[in-house]
Amino acid sequence: MNNILTIQNLKKVYHTMERETMAVKDFSMELKEGDFIAIVGPSGCGKSTILSILSGLEEKTEGEIFYGNQQIGYMLQTDALFDWLTILDNCLLGLKIKHELTDEKREYVISLLKKYGLGDFMDSYPNHLSGGMRQRVA
Ligand SMILES: Nc1ncnc2c1ncn2[C@@H]1O[C@H](COP(=O)(O)OP(=O)(O)OP(=O)(O)O)[C@@H](O)[C@H]1O
Ligand SMILES: [Mg+2]
After folding, report:
1. b/e sequence 106-122, b meaning 16+ C-beta within 10 Å
2. Residues less than 5 Å from ion ligand 2, measured at CB
């Protein structure tokens, strides 16, 4: 089985003070090299929950997830940029918090911003960018 990702019978129940919500019920899928998959369904059917579990932001309730040897990246539904930081500072924040920021890594981040057409906006603030630009920053 050379899958990048295999999900078997995934289940997620959220518990709050008011209620229990069955967000994902018996979800299975396989992802192979080169696959391009869209998970489609009505609002609230559990799409973001699946992605949050895959990226470790939420715990699963039941089921199995097998990861291949590839890294998983996740672009959130809302971009979560900090409005008071410039685009460059938003992009450097994770490295700064982990005390891993070096000149070399800073140059790499700048090269990525240029690659994604954001080179002229590094000193701008998020509310001056379009929705698509914000997502690329995220
Ligand atoms: N943190 C949470 N705590 C409690 N319930 C949650 C939480 N997050 C999501 N839910 C509930 O789980 C269900 C699935 O939500 P989810 O965000 O996964 O849906 P979605 O398919 O991504 O919807 P949309 O298309 O609107 O983004 C919904 O009923 C939602 O109310
Ligand atoms: Mg969603």
Report:
1. eeebbeebeeeebeebb
2. 48, 77
